Amino acid sequence: MRNADLARLLLLAAIWGGSFLFMRILAPVLGVLWTAELRVAIAGIAMLAFMGATRRPMKFAANWKQYLVLGTLNSALPFALYSYAALTLPAGYSAILNATSPLWGALVGAAVLGEQLTMRKLAGLATGIIGVTFLVRLGPAAFTQQVLVAALACVAAALCYGIAGAYSKKALAGITPPMMATGSQLAAAFFILPFLPLAPMRGEVTGFIILIEFALALLCSAVAYFIYFRLIADLGPTKALTVTFLTPLFALVWGALFLHESIDLNTLIGCALVIVATWLVAFPPKTGAATAVPD
Fold first, then answer.
1. CB 24, CB 147: distance < 8 Å
2. Mean pLDDT of 222-251
3. Shortest CA distance to 109 belongs to which of 294, 289, 277?
4. Closest CA to 103 of 67, 72, 131, 144
5. What is the pLDDT of residues 103-138, one digit of tens each?
6. What is the model's pTM?
7. Is the dihedral of CA 153, 158, 161, 165 positive or negative?
8. How far apart are CA 251 and CA 16, in angstroms?
9. What is the dihedral of CA 132, 136, 137, 143, to 10 degrees?
10. HEC secondary structure over the chain
11. In sequence order, which residues have a C-beta less than 8 Å from that of residue 267 and are 6 or more positions away?
12. Mean pLDDT in residue range 39-66
């Protein structure tokens, strides 16, 4: 791996780790749906402007259905679910639970694409479940019904990524990664828009909140997606997936530094188990194939 690729990988992990910190700040003020809607709308508009400036076609007439499905599964639902979880869970919790996405990708790939579910992947799934259970039951956040529901929301978001990955392999042939990224963000914004009256904003929108929302949208969605697709082009999807290992670690650090969230031994054990599980599922021996979808 070249130094430039390693730098991009670390930068992407730091950015996506920060996204959970930003949602933790925004969701109690903007509410679940407004946090998600502004993220995808601002990101989508910025990415569309970039596509126009670089004269890259979007082909909305031919691809709008694919954009809508991908945007719903890969952005609208996960971002709303993580924003909901941010009302209760520390940022590090959500990032660790997000790291189970490759595990769900393996299950969905086996069910939908006919990919082989090997003993290694089954061991990874079992390890991931143990890690999540350990984190939720024994982590620093007291185990309550609200914590359990928020954790299940994160798991549901990770499942959405697994389904989106399978859909991408089946239905998005011929659509370039920048087109997928841009189209999915715009489609996600249209999907969430009708539901906004059901979830009004919860607090006062200050200049600081506006700044954080723009950082979430432009940095954690627009810039992050373009970095990620560059990594896929340079390294391939499997090596690019190593960002999944690093994101929870950055999220734990950011949460501790800026929100004073506690990190105890149980948190680190749960995080380690999830990372091991992701490695078992996403990086099989060279004779096998990996199926996983990161954030």
1. no
2. 81
3. 289
4. 131
5. 888 888 888 878 787 888 888 888 988 988 888 777
6. 0.87
7. negative
8. 8
9. -160
10. CCHHHHHHHHHHHHHHHHHHHHHHHHHHHHCHHHHHHHHHHHHHHHHHHHHHHCCCCCCHHHHHHHHHHHHHHHHHHHHHHHHHHHCCCCHHHHHHHHCCHHHHHHHHHHHHCCCCCCHHHHHHHHHHHHHHHHHHHHCCCCCCHHHHHHHHHHHHHHHHHHHHHHHHHHHCCCCCHHHHHHHHHHHHHHHHHHHHHHCCCCCCCCHHHHHHHHHHHHHHHHHHHHHHHHHHHHHCHHHHCCHHHHHHHHHHHHHHHHCCCCCCHHHHHHHHHHHHHHHHHHCCCCCCCCCCCCC
11. 92, 93, 96, 135, 139, 140, 252
12. 95
CA–CA gap between residue 257 and residue 58 (Å, rounded): 40
Q: Write the CB contacts of 269 (distance below 8 Å, at least 6 apart in sequence).
A: 131, 134, 135
Pair of tokens at residue 49? 């402007």
Q: Which residues contact 288 (CB under 8 A, 6 or more apart)?
A: 116, 118, 120
pLDDT band at 287 (very low <50, low <70, confident <90, very high): low
The amino acid occupying position 139 is G
Q: What ranges do the domains of the chain cover?
A: 3-282
> What whole-number distance in Å separates Cα of residue 267 and Cα of residue 244?
17
